[in-house]
Amino acid sequence: MDARQLFEILVRDNIDSVRAFVMSSVRDANVADDIVQEAFVVSWKNLDRYDRERPFGPWVRGIAGKLILSHRRKVGRSKVMYLDDEVLGVLDGAFEQLQRLAGDTFDEKLDALRDCMRALSDQQRQAIALHYDDGLQCKDIAPRLGLQTEAVKKHLQRGRAALLKCIEGKLGVSLIEEVA
Amino acid sequence: VDPRSDELARRDETLDDVEGGDALPGGALRADLLGQRLVHGLLAATATARDEVGRQRRLDAILAAVRSTPDADEVLDALDQVDETLADLDGDIDGDIDGDLAGLGAVEGPAVRAELARQRVVDALLRVTREPDAARRRGERVRRIVDALPVGDAAGGAGGGGGRILRLPRRWERYAVAAVLFVAVGLALRALLGGGLDPHLEAATRELGRAADHHFGLTVDRIDGPAIERIGVHDLWLRPLPDGRLRFRLHLDGARSGQQQIGCDGDVIWRQNLADAADREALPIASANAMFERLAARSARHLGIRDPDQFDVRQLLGLLAGQQAEHSARDATIRDDGHASRTYFFDGLEHPAYGRLAAVMVRVDLSDHRIEALEFVRQAPDGVMRFRFEHRGVEPQPASFYDQPW
Q: Disulfide engineering: B63 pairs with which of A124, B35, B179, B308, CB 3.0-4.6 Å?
């Protein structure tokens, strides 16, 4: 096995978690994929700086975070969610905690999230399905559920809050403390 | 009018600082300033909001939202108010964003800011987990990344000493471990039983060790209290070799991981993704014993071992074959097809350093003396993982059946 093949395995094992981390700050999935790709390419070019005694994923996340900040500076804040070093650190810490979930792969760890879907109300679950599975906007979801757009937003917000609370319950820790 | 507005009005310079991202004053004033910043941008963007009454109403709503509120429900209510405000003012700019996740990022009240981060994390996780055809898209992304890597070795000469970055978690290892452990358990039973125990089980383990191509169905379940969740149903062929080595081929069929083949020809252990020809790997092994030790040690956590660094597979086998393993046999049962079977349980596989290793169940056909089923379980944080092997018969295979396919 040559280095590229070894690196490909590292990419496969870490791409989901790095991509999720990037998507927590970048709405556009195509832009997120570009940043993820760039993060891995940069990590490949800088492997001599990688401390091999430490996990690979957090190192790539750190690179991705810098790329997001750089991207935000280029395209303007309207394209990328609010972000600074502090927020970046908070999000990174949350993803670090998620690694403690049961499962070998990040996808398997997210079985906890899938399992937590059962804890949602029907309307929360429906709103999440229409938004995340079908890609519908809140204003398009509203007539389907017979709700106002604001009510759809509320269901999504409270659904996400409930999911996080459920995951935190499985972990036994809070993923995100108050940000000073 | 808020009595602080005069003070804030004199702080235009500070507002500029906020825009520039410089350090902010703390406490309530910090929240107010950021609220002002948000309102300023929103009002500037909308003509309809420029009447003073509407301006003040929205200002009040946002200032209320950005102040610290320790209770999560209060925070969410505050976010709702901001949502409404943003929707009133600017319904289309973030029309694709359900909860104004982006816009709210500019609000820096501690509790609201933390809630925003929580919402963002879950939003990202949902987007990742609910992506349709995720396995194929993941493969495409990986391929694109690998294609984008500059030609040549990585910095630091990782290629020259490939092992330098070889800290590669392999999810398929646990299946390989399960397969190998299965055989090890089966073979260890012979030592465990010695010559003074049940002849049916002794004969069955001798049959399992015979150089033939045994076909097993492997079922993996997660048991959480009364609930049993089926993780996967797979096929395993294995052939013990006279010199102690092992050939096996394991076909995995997972909803998320797709179809994968794992095999071992006795010298090389390999894995191949049937849906993505480029997703494959192979590792040479010096001997079956070395492979067993390495795989088992590296995947020790999956076997429920508390301290994987101290794990020694020989001690595991020693446990199975030694004095600590209590076993018991249930009475023979007669099945509908007239065959009689007996079930054996091996419990109490505890070790001070390793914790609980496994509970093993073996069911033996008393007529033809073969192992019909073997089960072992491991304790996982969210339940118990159960690996169950059902013997489906001996199916002669060509030697190439176990060879690395490429």
A: B35
